[in-house]
Amino acid sequence: MSSACGWLAAWVLAVSGQVPVAAEVSPDGVVSFKLGGAVVTRYNAGPKVAKPYFWPVVTPGGVAITRDWPMVPDAKEAKDHKHQKSAWFCHGDIVLEGYQAPKRKGIDGIDFWSEETGHGTIAGLAISTPTGNGNGPVTVRTANTWKDSTGKTILTEARTLVFRARDASSWIMEVASEITASEGGIVFEDTKEGSFGVRVRDDLTEKPGKGVLTNAEGLKGEKNLWGKKSAWCDYSGPTGGKVAGVAIVAHPDNKYPTCWHARGYGLMAANPFGRNRSGFPDMKGRADLVKLAKGETLKLTYAMLVHDGDAEAAKPGERVFAK
């Protein structure tokens, strides 16, 4: 079946209310998620990646939302921030109490955000057999170890991916991260560089594209959204000859509110750890860092809502989480 026919079949099934969803795991640690038989995203968690990431990210209508570079070296796109690989979850500065990590300028602990010399890595240890293939949702469970540049384990993580069709024009990837301070107490340091992020393609950005950042309060644009608390944030606009976008939605049960490291050049990231030093306006004067005692677990859940149409049509505040 041609690619165009695959997208058409997926759309017809979505309209009918019967959208088969599926996930397949390859031997090299890549999980392909399918909507109506067409791959709409892949979770790349093999041994060669610095941290797991979703790429490509494609709407039900067949529009690629996220940047291809650096996964495609010769992509005709902006070649900056090589660590912003499509869609990912991590944090830019984590301290393991009692351990002196290799020194890096501006970092108190280990940097899992950037991929400059000395960065940390999130190594995938296991990926479960997908459950729920059919009319969905499909669930895949993964296990990760977060390590510093010397290979020392800093913490462990159980990450659950729940993929489902939402309607004819959108699908959802729910990512639940259970972070455990397995090696000792940990501190999520105050930095803007975190945590569940996406990097959209160039023509979907505010600058130089015609995309629009929108949050749950109806505010628009980087200057009005950056560092503000909100339940969700959406990046959408004309791209690939259509209007489409992606939203990140924080689960209402998350222990800490989300501020948004959202930029006009194409980055949109949900950050529950930034405080006063990050420069977030809504965290001005706050120094209450997120800490876990040894053995303690923090669960954070975010949903990536990938949609055709703009933010108003997508309604990121509705029907996102199953429970």
Descriptive key words:
19 strands; mainly beta; 8-stranded antiparallel beta sheet; globular; 3 helices; 323 residues; Beta-galactosidase, Chain A, domain 5
Topology:
Blueprint: H1 3-15, E1 21-25, E2 30-35, E3 38-44, E4 53-57, E5 87-91, E6 94-96, E7 121-127, E8 138-147, E9 153-167, E10 170-180, E11 186-188, E12 194-199, E13 212-215, H2 222-225, E14 232-239, E15 242-250, E16 259-262, E17 267-271, E18 290-292, E19 297-308, H3 311-314
Antiparallel strand pairs: 1-2, 2-3, 3-4, 4-5, 5-12, 6-11, 7-8, 8-9, 9-10, 10-19, 11-18, 12-17, 13-14, 14-15, 15-19, 16-17
Structure, described:
The protein has 323 residues and is mainly β. It has one domain: Beta-galactosidase, Chain A, domain 5. Helices cover 7% and strands 40% of the residues. The strands form 3 sheets. It has an 8-stranded antiparallel β-sheet. Strand 3 (38-44) and strand 4 (53-57) form a beta hairpin. The longest helix has 13 residues, at 3-15. It is globular and about 50 Å long. Mean pLDDT is 93; it is low at 6-17.
The major β-sheet equals: 8 strands, antiparallel
Structural class: mainly beta
Q: Write the CATH architecture name.
A: Distorted Sandwich
Discrete helix count: 3
Mean pLDDT: 93
The ordered string of helix (H) and strand (E) elements is HEEEEEEEEEEEEEHEEEEEEH
Reading side by side through the largest sheet, how are the strands ordered?
Answer: 1-2-3-4-5-12-17-16
**Strand percent estimate:** 35-45%
Which word captures the global form? globular
As a percent range, the share of helical residues equals under 10%
